[in-house]
Amino acid sequence: MRLFLLVCVTMCAFAANSLLNRAALTSGGIDAVSFATLRLVAGAFMLGALVLLRHGGLRLGGRGRLAGVVGLFLYMYGFSLAYDGLPAGLGALLLFGMVQVTMFVGSLVMGETIPARRWLGAALAFAGLAWLLWPGGEAAPSLPHSAAMLAAGLGWGVYSLAGRLSEVPLTSAAATMVITAGLGLLVQLGAWPVGLAHGGWGGEAIALAVISGAVTSGLGYALWYTVLPRIPGSIAAVAQLTVPVLAMAGGIALLGESLSPRFAVSAALVLGGVGLSVLPKRRA
Fold first, then answer.
1. Which terminus of the chain has a lower count of CB atoms within 10 Å, N or C?
2. How many beta carbons lie within 10 A of that of residue 211, not counting itself?
3. Rounded to whole angstroms, what are the CA distances from 41 to 73, 101, 202?
């Protein structure tokens, strides 16, 4: 029961990241790159402080660290850039659809035998993403912003795979965040003229970025790294199916977003396909 509650809290935190990021960018108080950097720095301070309090020091090395840093970096900036032009629910659907594609390809690369049911599920999920992005008819989402979110999904998939290698979850999450935040500060220096041209930072947007970094990202990732080694990969994948639904509901209730028929059909295909791929086969 406790593990179930931890998974629920983590999924709510992930959905909240979509809402916080989208709200900050639509307010006009910050640019996408600056939001991602502030989010990283706030998360690094939160996780670093927790590790120092519990363990007295932070070890930056470890299994899967490089992959985790690359994945987190790609996710953070792709995610923020995408939400410059995507609604919260649609962005979350693209993100976690791509996460599942990444996991599927990873299984193939590792030589895992893929049953027919998983191939069918992957085909359905891919068809849903293709339908969502296909031009014509009802307006398709912006392709540049969609590509940024697909890149973020690739990064999150790599980050999640690296998390399964962690021996001390909190320390691993903190080290990954601290290293990635350092890289983010270098990116911010290069992108500083863009932020100035955007008009600077607003207080509300800064607060949303700090909450997203310290709470829903920092503490959320610490929980995710704690939970991942204790649950099968299929259960982790199924749990993440709830995030687009939660983000969509939050976007409609809090941000005034709407549910289009195109998005509804795509969501049914993607979530149904992923569910078919990862749910265990019923035994006689």
1. C
2. 17
3. 12, 29, 17
